[in-house]
């Protein structure tokens, strides 16, 4: 009987240890970077932007009519971004190792009283993109707000930068690509709108990088966030 007790005890200890490892592994996979809305964490994480996308790709990625937030529409044409617009607000030179960029402006319900803007800036390395993004978002740390669900490798919102009111700037970096969204008034005071535009733009970049057409929209991302 004593041998049987020893054998049973050893088996129980082994089962407990195995259960503990499995539990820790499940917790790690379910909580590390878990997406909003309780979605399964087993799906692969989006790949950072690593390819040197062409100018035509950046133009395709920029949100068009019906793809951006409700009420907003393209103001004019999508544009090629000059290097200085990918740098800090007080620096009018192209940032180090900048490759290319694209931007678009949006008007609200046919009026230019309130405007929105999206800029995409591509760099040769993730390090240079990181440095430029840090310069881009400025130094108003007290106005920065972390996103509940991050977008890309690093992201933040700057609420009412400078002396503005009801405005929000969103910044995201994924690999070698930086994205900035600026919302002026109306829905601009709603950080969720800025996040939806950031997320849609990044996912469209990822689609192009994977050789697929850019189909994700800001309303798609809003709907996903509400689930």
Number of strands: 8
Q: Major sheet: size, sense and barrel closure?
A: 8 strands, antiparallel
Task: Tell me roughly what share of residues is in helical segments.
Answer: 25-40%
Mean pLDDT: 80
Overall 3D geometry? globular
Instruction: List low-confidence stretches.
Output: 1-44
Q: What class, by secondary structure content?
A: alpha+beta
Count of runs of 4 or more consecutive helical residues: 5
The fraction of residues in strands falls at 15-25%
Measure the end-to-end span: 57 Å
Which sequence of SSEs, written as H and E, runs from N to C? HHEEEEHEEEEHH
Q: Tell me the radius of gyration.
A: 22 Å
Concise account of the structure shown:
This protein is α+β, with helices and mostly antiparallel strands. 33% of the residues lie in helices and 23% in strands.
Model description:
The chain is of the alpha+beta class. The protein is built from five helices and eight strands; from the N terminus they run H-H-E-E-E-E-H-E-E-E-E-H-H. Helix 2 packs across helix 4 (191-209) and helix 4 (191-209) packs across helix 5 (218-226). The radius of gyration is 22 Å and the shape is globular.
């Amino acid at each position: 009987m004593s041998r049987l007790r020893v054998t049973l005890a050893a088996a129980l200890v082994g089962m407990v240890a195995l259960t503990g490892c499995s539990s820790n592994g499940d917790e790690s996979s379910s909580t590390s970077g878990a997406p909003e809305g309780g979605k399964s964490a087993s799906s692969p994480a989006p790949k950072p932007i690593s390819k040197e996308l062409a100018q035509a790709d950046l133009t395709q990625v920029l949100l068009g009519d019906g793809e951006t937030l409700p009420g907003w529409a393209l103001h004019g044409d999508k544009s090629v971004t000059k290097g200085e617009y990918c740098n800090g607000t007080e620096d009018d030179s192209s940032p180090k190792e900048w490759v290319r960029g694209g931007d678009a402006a949006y008007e609200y319900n046919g009026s230019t009283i309130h405007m929105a803007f999206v800029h995409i800036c591509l760099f040769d390395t993730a390090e240079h993109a990181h440095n430029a993004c840090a310069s881009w978002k400025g130094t108003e740390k007290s106005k920065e707000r972390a996103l509940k669900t991050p977008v890309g490798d690093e992201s933040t919102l700057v609420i009412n930068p400078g002396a503005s009111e009801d405005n929000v700037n969103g910044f995201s970096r994924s690999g070698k690509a930086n994205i900035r969204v600026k919302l002026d008034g109306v829905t601009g005071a709603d950080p969720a709108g800025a996040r939806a535009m950031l997320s849609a733009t990044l996912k469209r970049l990822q689609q192009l990088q994977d050789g697929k057409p850019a189909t994700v929209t800001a309303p798609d991302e809003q709907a996903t966030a509400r689930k």
